[in-house]
Amino acid sequence: MQPLIITVAPTGAELTPDQTPHLPITPKAMGEVAAKIEAAGASIIHVHCRNDDGTNTHSVERFAAVYDAIRANSDLVVQFSTGGAIGMSPQERAAPLQLRPEMASLTCGTVNFGEHIFENSFPIMRGILLEMKAYDVRPELEIFDKGHLNNARRLEREGALQLPQHVDFVLGVPGGLDATVHNLSDLVDNLPAGCTWSVAGIGRGQLPMSLAAIAMGGHVRVGLEDNIYFSRGRLATNEELVARVRRIATEAGREVATPSEARTILGLTRRQAVATGEAASRP
Ligand code: KMH
Ligand code: ZN
After folding, report:
1. pTM to 2 decimals?
2. Ligand that lies nearest to the alpha carbon of residue 124, given by its number in the listed order
3. Is the preceding omega at residue 139 within 30 degrees of 0, hence cis?
4. CB 165 within 8 A of CB 153
5. I need a surface site. Which of 153, 159, 176, 270 has the fewest CB within 10 A?
6. For residue 251, what are the contacts with CB-CB under 8 A and spacing of at least 6?
């Protein structure tokens, strides 16, 4: 089996700092977390940004500062979110792509998201994919429901999306597909040919989905964006969630991938973003 790629989503957009003190909010905190999760065994970081007061931002300047902090402290593959936070406009969500991160997420369809709607119509997806193409950014396809795989195939038929890509199954969102081994297995059976995959189980689904992926030869996403608890009632840090997955994978005979091995597995060829904070702040 391939070495296990552990992706970490350390912050997310829907949590508030009063829910857990362990969310990295500032660029400095993101840099520190990047070093800790890399040391613990992670190879990809999924990035959302916050203002200093913890509110969401998708400003290019903030992403540039966070990018620089991550790159100064780690070799992690940097994956920007284009999902942003509920209510952000598609243009806002796509704007940081101009910094040319190696990867960015692309949710492949609209989904109920708790009390809200996470909107990803075909025009929105096509628009984000055009920006990804313009800036040479590799998409990670976020699949919250089985129909999202059909949407990805339709985008490929239209020529808007090239397949295969790396796919992340996000299971357990209220409104999306449940985090069960049966659902995961069904999704993997329906994966477009040649795609690699990981799974992000939400809440208490995070650990069982990680166990299943380790056994099935897939990859794993953990992090506070998806789950803030280490065990019932005990808040987690990002690095200890990574360390636990690594321990289990090692026991099961699977080594974890370094960032450089993850780049090889995913066929990524460009480590450095072209525009860093300095470049982004130039007129
Ligand atoms: N914040 C969620 C509504 C992504 O990053 O691409 C969407 C999300 C997906 O987190
Ligand atoms: Zn996200």
Report:
1. 0.96
2. 1
3. no
4. no
5. 159
6. none
